Amino acid sequence: MAEAQSTDLVQLVALLGAGVVAVPVFKRVGLGSVIGYLAAGIAIGPFGLGLFTDPQAILHVAELGVVMFLFVIGLEMRPSRLWGLRREIFGLGVAQVVVCGAILTGAGILAGLPPAAAFVAGMGFVLTSTATVMQLLDERGETASPAGQRIVSILLLEDLSIVPLIAAVVLLGTTHADEHALPFWQSGLIALAAVAAVVAAGRWLLNPMFRILARANAREVMTAAALLVVLGAALVMQLSGLSMAMGAFLAGVLLSESSFRHQLEADIEPFRGLLLGLFFLGVGMSLDLRVLVLDWEYILAALAGYMVLKAIGIALVARLFRTDMRESLTRAAMMAQGGEFAFVLYSAAVAGGGIDGRLNAILTATVLLSMALTPLT
Fold it and tell me: Are 233 and 68 in contact (CB under 8 A)?
């Protein structure tokens, strides 16, 4: 037992040490913290020093960093402000997903993939990494800018789109899906009920609860309550089949006009920063270098093709919405990569028989490399 505890402590020290050493170095040379975390993850992962053999376990916990990041963003978005972005969310966001999805699916078919596999591969890459882009916007101080808000709106729509995409992947699978799964219309009703429950709690319960807790003058209780709100909203959304990040964002929006907004943000910030860094470390660990060696030509072709075509699609949609050229190119450069939801979609496709294990490994490596390259733009 003592040996196991020692191993756990070594891994914890390695995680903290890798981030502490790599991030300042990479920021000093102008590459940013995200690429620093990714490089550190590769160094200590299964294909580096081998201090970790199961990066997926790290990623599973570290996803909470993305959840908390979206909560903090939600705190900055009052409902009236969010309503003002409805055109960007359901206009610009939908247009970008549809146009880029069509372009990448067509490219996959032309490359020789079956239509169903091409659709899965392309739509997975369409879902931009919320964590990567939000971190870049935060570092550049552009999150609250009009251009930044438009990017946030598109990311929110992409988070929402994972639900119908998974349903489509199940239908496209060559093997039968889980016979115990609910019909799509029932899943939709459950998702709507979950959103309604979170909205009702935020509107009528959260502010009275925080007022009662504030009278106790116990800072640690307020911190625990803040974490409870974030993780509780994320859990409700996850159980209903929606994105955890969407639940946290919705909770943040509902608390954005609360008098406790600034205290909540201060309480969440340390956890958000640590877990988000851990997420990028886990992504770096997940990069299978053996796949890079065996199928490097396919991965590089997919990486170049998907990133270039997606960037063209993003810029085209931006120009159709009368966005100026500079913002269009900036958005295309920041959002040309795949994202963490691609792993969810590809896993569902493998389970349903839509793609095989080798294609899944190639696509996963392609998405990971695109996430690693994005901070260099």
Answer: no
Q: What pTM, to 2 d.p., does this model score?
A: 0.67
* Cβ 111 vs Cβ 176: under 8 Å: no
Cβ atoms of residues 74 and 265 within 8 Å: no
* Sequence-separated (6 or more) residues with CB below 8 Å from residue 308: 336
Residue ranges of alpha helices (H) inside the chain are 2-28, 32-44, 55-75, 79-84, 86-87, 93-110, 115-126, 130-140, 146-172, 184-204, 206-215, 219-239, 244-254, 261-286, 289-294, 296-320, 325-335, 340-352, 357-373
Alpha-carbon gap, residue 119 to 107, rounded angstroms: 10
- How distant, in Å, are the alpha carbons of 165, 246, 341 from that of 250? 21, 6, 19
Q: Is residue 349 a contact partner of residue 360, using CB atoms and an 8 Å limit?
A: yes
- Structure tokens given for 3: 């040996």
Most confident of 209-213, 217-221, 254-258, 263-267: 209-213
